[in-house]
């Protein structure tokens, strides 16, 4: 499959497995799963046919491992704006995690901290490079160091998605090191 088709399918999956499943008549279960055949039939019915082989290739080759297939079910690993419970166990984070953003967001982050905005969780990465790539999607990136170990000690919960993205409800400004660790 060519790169353009791969990207189009990945974006289609993101839209319908993370944000608007109802748009194609798909209903995610409580944990975000949908039957693969139901998804493929809905995509075809809405003039975006995807073969099972294409779906498998997109899931396997996605550089961020955004999707998971488990038997006959598929779901997005994280990033949902629709309410789902990914049923991920609470995990102890490393001492520092990182978040990529852009400079125009810093004033609000200094006041309010990191909020999930339209999603269910704040997304954090284990390395600066990933956070820098995330921030670069919206302009010149700024990487924030998050004192995740201190947050955990203070009672904040963290979960880690199947693709290694750390999730938490909110990061208060007091846990953000704006200069790096």
Short summary of the structure?
One of its GO terms (biological process) is tRNA splicing, via endonucleolytic cleavage and ligation. This protein is α+β, with helices and mostly antiparallel strands and 181 residues long. Helices cover 33% and strands 18% of the residues.
Distance, first to last CA: 42 Å
Instruction: Please identify the top-level CATH class of the largest domain.
Output: Alpha Beta
The outline comes out as elongated
Q: Could you name the ranges where pLDDT drops below 50 across 5 or more consecutive residues?
A: none
The profile of the biggest β sheet is:
3 strands, antiparallel
Order of strands across the main sheet: 1-3-2
Helical segment tally?
6
Strand count = 9
| Average pLDDT metric | 94
Gyration radius, rounded: 17 Å
Describe the structure.
By secondary structure, the protein is an alpha+beta fold. It folds into two domains: 3-76, Orthogonal Bundle (Arc Repressor Mutant, subunit A), CATH 1.10.10; 97-177, ADP-ribosylation fold. The protein is built from six helices and nine strands. The chain has helices at 3-19, 36-45, 52-61, 106-112, 128-136, 148-153, and strands at 34-35, 67-70, 73-76, 97-102, 122-124, 141-146, 159-160, 166-168, 176-177. The strands form three sheets. It has a three-stranded antiparallel β-sheet with strand order 1-3-2. Helix 1 (3-19) packs across helix 3 (52-61).
């Amino acid at each position: 499959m060519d790169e353009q088709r791969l990207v189009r399918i990945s974006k289609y999956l993101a839209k319908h497995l993370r944000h608007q499943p109802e748009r194609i008549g798909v209903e995610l279960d409580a944990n975000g799963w949908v039957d693969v055949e139901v998804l493929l039939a809905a995509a075809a019915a809405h003039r975006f046919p995807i073969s099972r082989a294409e779906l498998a290739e997109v899931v396997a080759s996605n550089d961020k491992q955004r999707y998971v297939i488990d038997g006959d079910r598929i779901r997005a690993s994280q990033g949902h704006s629709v309410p789902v419970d990914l049923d991920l166990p609470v995990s102890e984070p490393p001492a520092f995690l990182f978040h990529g953003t852009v400079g125009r967001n810093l004033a609000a982050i200094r006041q309010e901290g990191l909020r999930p905005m339209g999603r269910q969780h704040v997304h954090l990465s284990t390395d600066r490079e990933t956070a820098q790539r995330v921030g670069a999607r919206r302009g010149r990136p700024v990487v924030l160091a998050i004192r995740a170990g201190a947050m955990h000690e203070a009672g904040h919960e963290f979960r880690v998605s199947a693709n290694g993205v750390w999730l938490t409800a909110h990061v208060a400004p007091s846990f953000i090191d704006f200069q790096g660790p």
